[in-house]
Amino acid sequence: MSVLSQLATAADDLPEGMRRIAAYIVSDPAGAVGATINELADLSHTSPATVNRFCRRLGYTGYAELKVAVATDNGRAEQANWQQAIGSEVQPGDSLEHTAAVIAGGDMLAIQQTVDQLDITALAAVVDALTTARRIHLYGVSGSSLAAAEMRHRLNVIGLPAWSWSDVHDGLGAAAALESRDVLVAFSHSGRTHEAVQVLRTAAAAGAVTVAVTNSAASPLATAADHHLRTAVNEGSLFRSQALAARHSQLFLVDLIFVAVANQNFDRSLTTFEKVAHAVQPHLVDHRRR
């Protein structure tokens, strides 16, 4: 994973002082590269000792090695024209062109960061479990319910038995009835949504395979699940909270899982997909008729 991706996504798991260091580097990578260790400590309101501990926690021998990694990573970001989204926010009075660029850049960056930190071993285990599952239940509340519903729709069109829930009573009842060949996937950006944690733990107690899709590896949802797929987020606007901005990386994982599962049994998936498409064809408006 690139160092800027690592810093942007690991903030929730860092102590307060290290979180400020990470935030400063992400907001101004070029400034961090040009700063001495004492200057970075002042800019992040920490101490040189904290900066050193921060570097070692990330796996670097010291600040010099971290600066090389940040400079290299920042060069790639500038080449991809994503630097405008790192630390940028849409302000009142900004043009529509600038607003579009910042939001699009932030969303692309969040998806790239999700790819950078993707646990391929966990992803493969999730795909295998879904492919052979007797029943698949998907749970999310509020905005995360959209990702659950989208995944249910995707799996249904290739013939897999999937249901999505957003009401906690429905989710708990469905989770309690699961068995060892079943799978429960819970979506929560923070990983601390009480209802999502409760539903996932109920499914785990019933013997089902459990999957958490969250932004934090240290969250209660992630630590309670058999498998964790981590999302990334870039806010970029006052009106886009982290939970709202996380939707693109959630949907990216849904899309990735869907394609991988479909490819596991390509012929069956394609046959079912074509049957579904044929069934809804009569409900499409013929553009040739006006």
Provide a descriptive summary of the structure in words.
It is built from 15 helices and five strands. The chain has a five-stranded parallel β-sheet with strand order 2-1-3-4-5, sandwiched between helices. 58% of the residues lie in helices and 8% in strands. The N and C termini lie far apart (53 Å). Helix 7 (96-116) packs across helix 14 and helix 10 (168-176) runs parallel beside helix 11 (194-205).
Could you list some keywords that capture this structure?
single chain, 290 residues, five-stranded parallel β-sheet
Summarize, please.
With about 290 residues, the chain is of the alpha/beta class. It has helices spanning about 5-10, 15-25, 30-35, 35-45, 50-55, 65-80, 95-115, 120-130, 145-155, 170-175, 195-205, 220-225, 240-245, 245-265, 265-280, and strands at about 135-140, 160-165, 185, 210-215, 225-230. The chain starts with a helix and ends in a 10-residue tail after the last helix.
The main β sheet shows up as: 5 strands, parallel
Helical run tally = 15
What fraction, in percent, of the residue positions are helical? 55-70%
Distance between the termini: 53 Å
Number of strands: 5
Can you give the mean pLDDT? 86
Overall 3D geometry? Answer: globular
Element order: H for helix, E for strand: HHHHHHHHEHEHEHEHEHHH
Please state the CA-atom Rg, rounded to the nearest Å: 22 Å
* Strand line-up of the largest beta sheet: 2-1-3-4-5
- In the predicted model, the low-confidence regions spanning at least 5 consecutive residues are 79-87
Q: What fraction strand?
A: 5-15%
Q: Output the structural class.
A: alpha/beta
